[in-house]
Amino acid sequence: MRKYRLSEEQRAFSYQEDDTKKSVLLRQIIAISDFNDVIAGTAGGWIDRETVLAQEGNCWIYDQNAIAFGGTVISGNTRITGTSVLWGEVYATDNVWIDNSEISQGAYISDSVTIHDSLVCGQCRIFGHALINQHSMIVAAQGLTPDHQLLLQIYDRARVSASRIVHQAQIYGDAVIRYAFIEHRAEVFDFASIEG
After folding, report:
1. DSSP string, 79-101
2. How many C-beta atoms surround the C-beta of residue 151 within 10 A?
3. Phi and psi for 149 in degrees, rounded to 5?
4. First vs last Cα of the chain: how many Å apart?
5. Closest by CA position to 44, among listed 36, 163, 142
6. pTM metric for this prediction
7. CB 101 within 8 A of CB 86
8. How many CA atoms lie less than 13 Å away from 46 in the CB half-sphere?
9. What are the phi and psi torsion angles at 40 (to 5°)?
């Protein structure tokens, strides 16, 4: 059963990828049936094609200033709120909540993750009940260490606030990172608490 349609109106969005300025045409999502807390007729965010937002589940792009494009897939019960931007092969599923954040370039986010007021870019995995907030920057980069295949991961009940996590770092367990910079192949886990 279809839960939304795309508007006839189009909107251009310009962005930069690898020093190249690009543009994409987006269309607004409009609910055609009631589901979860969305009422038929409600206008949501903007996407470049229907494959971005699943017709199944309760996933929705709530804010009319939020956009998703470029191979992004939003499914399950994922909620996108605030002026979020998701682009470049991003995958968000299950009970993820992304608010006022930019997620790009291959990030895979699942389970019950919350990302608020932050930036996540590059091929990484964020899952479990992880929380990323307070203008944190998660910047994944492979190939900077001898382990070329290792992905940056943040999972379990890890909390990252007002911090920068880069390269292939691993943050998990009940770790708490606040006002810190974690890089390369560093691992922060169990009940570790790092504050800068």
Report:
1. EEESS-EEESS-EE-TT-EEES-
2. 15
3. -90, -15
4. 50
5. 36
6. 0.96
7. no
8. 17
9. -50, 135
Listed residue (65, 70, 68) closest to 78, CA to CA: 68
Token digits of residue 48? 């470049």
pLDDT tens readout for residues 95-124: 999 999 999 999 999 999 999 999 999 999
- Tokens representing 83? 């002026």
- 26 has a pLDDT exceeding 90: yes
Burial class of residue 113 (count of CB atoms within 10 Å of its CB; 0-12, 13-18, 19+): buried
- Domains of the chain, earliest start first: 4-195 (2.160.10)
- 47 Cβ contact list (under 8 Å, min separation 6): 6, 26, 27, 29, 53, 61, 67, 68, 69, 72
CB atoms within 10 A of CB 24: 17
User: Quick one: which H or E segment has residue 160?
Assistant: strand 159-161
DSSP annotation of 162 reads S
